[in-house]
Write a structure and sequence with these properties.
Blueprint (H helix, E strand, L loop, with lengths): L3 H12 L2 E3 L11 E3 L1 H20 L4 E3 L5 E2 L1 H7 L1 H4 L1 E6 L6 E3 L22 E4 L3 E3 L9 E4 L4 H6 L1 H8 L5 E10 L14 E11 L4 H18 L7 E5 L11 E9 L2 E12 L1 H10 L5 E3 L4 E3 L2 E8 H12 E6 L2 E6 L10 E5 L7 H11 L5 E3 L5 H10 L4 E5 L1 H6 L1 E6 L5 E5 L3 H10 L1
Parallel strand pairs: 3-10, 20-21, 20-22
Antiparallel strand pairs: 1-2, 4-9, 5-6, 5-7, 8-9, 10-11, 11-17, 12-13, 13-14, 14-17, 15-16, 18-19, 22-23, 23-24
Helix pairs in contact: 2-9, 3-8
The structure holds glycyl-adenosine-5'-phosphate (GAP).
Length: about 425
Amino acid sequence: MADLFEHVVNLCKRRGFVFPSAEIYGGFRSTYDYGPVGVLLLRNVQEAWWRSMVQLRDDVVGLDAAILSPPQIWEASGHLQNFTDPLVDCRNCKERFRLDKLEDPDTCPSCGKQGTFTEARQFNLMFKTFAGPVEGAGAEVYLRPETAQGMFTQFKNVLDTSRKKPPFGIAQVGKSFRNEITPGNFVFRTREFIQMEMEFFVPPAEAPAWFAYWCQERYRWNVDLGIPEDQLQLRPHDPDELSHYSSATSDVEFLFPWGWDELEGIANRGDFDLTQHSKHSGEKLEYFDQAANERYTPHVIEPAAGATRTMMAFLMSAYTEDEVGGEARTVLKLHPRLAPYKVAVLPLSKKETLTPLAREVLALLQPHMLCDYDETQSIGKRYRRQDEIGTPWCVTVDFDSLDDRAVTIRDRDSLEQVRIPIDSLVGELRGRLES
Ligand code: GAP
């Protein structure tokens, strides 16, 4: 669809998914706030990830590690040394660019002049701040640029307390921060974002097989939540693209309006991280296999996804324009598990006689699922609004409901309407949600 990007960005603002941060002060450089329905969608993305990575498995446990971290962690991980982008400045227009993202490394894309770039400087992407009242050497701390390191530094504590043994994983969802030189494309690349990462510790000989397994699992997760397969691909990295820690990486890529781009990376990190943290901390980060009477450093397979970026892909692939009764409608065909509200309760009219029963239906559903309630405007307009925020089902309470204690469920995608007794409503909707 032409202009899909603009349509989605406009919808996000208009319906309360995503707002520019600090907008009343003119906005604040590529940062965003998630509005009343955006926060629900973003939580549902994280919840769907956690469900598949932790809840439905017995070989992965969770962690929530600190965001502020001492330099030693980033010294050991290699981020202080290697987590850099090459930066050039145009001497003519003073604009700054990432050298590796320039189409022509000799021509400024802003002013068009040739040969005006400075020598490339390596720019570290980590945000540095100071802990305590004194700024300066010894007080530096970093905002984590990835959640991954928490899983490596807590490897021993988790191993000692969780009764897990390789192959097993540690999963974490949380904020990460990168001082990106070129943030952009809405929430695709921001300086503050949410990651969903899992470090899977395996016996070294099993690493290639687990790498292949996690590539397939992560591809499938996106498909199961509604991304069409022709908008999704797994792309192995070329050797010159690999991060400093990786011996193999494949990206799950989504066909964004500007082309294929990364949703998440699955990397074979080998024993790089545990070995580095062992060396730097002096703590042995190994596993002792009693049956084989052998001690080894597990290898790590890491599926690393971005929740904010993945949310954007779900929005892009769900955005649909169709026609209902000769009228254009916009509908977000989000998977019910992801939809901000699962159901909207709509009394047919605002007449006082309907309100008590409509509120009774709402109270019946609320303990089971997130519900919206809307009684203003025509029923047609209220359906359109729910379509635009992706609500899979609307429940209409009408005047007959007062007599027969039945309501109508309208399906967002098929537009099918069925009448069912209020007493069966929870079971019916839960059945639809879980199917
Ligand atoms: N621990 C490995 C790691 O962090 P990464 O490829 O740099 O790998 C993983 O990041 C995922 O985090 C990316 O695939 C992307 O979805 C998300 N991500 C990374 N930088 C981001 C940014 N600036 N804005 C939004 N999401 C980002």
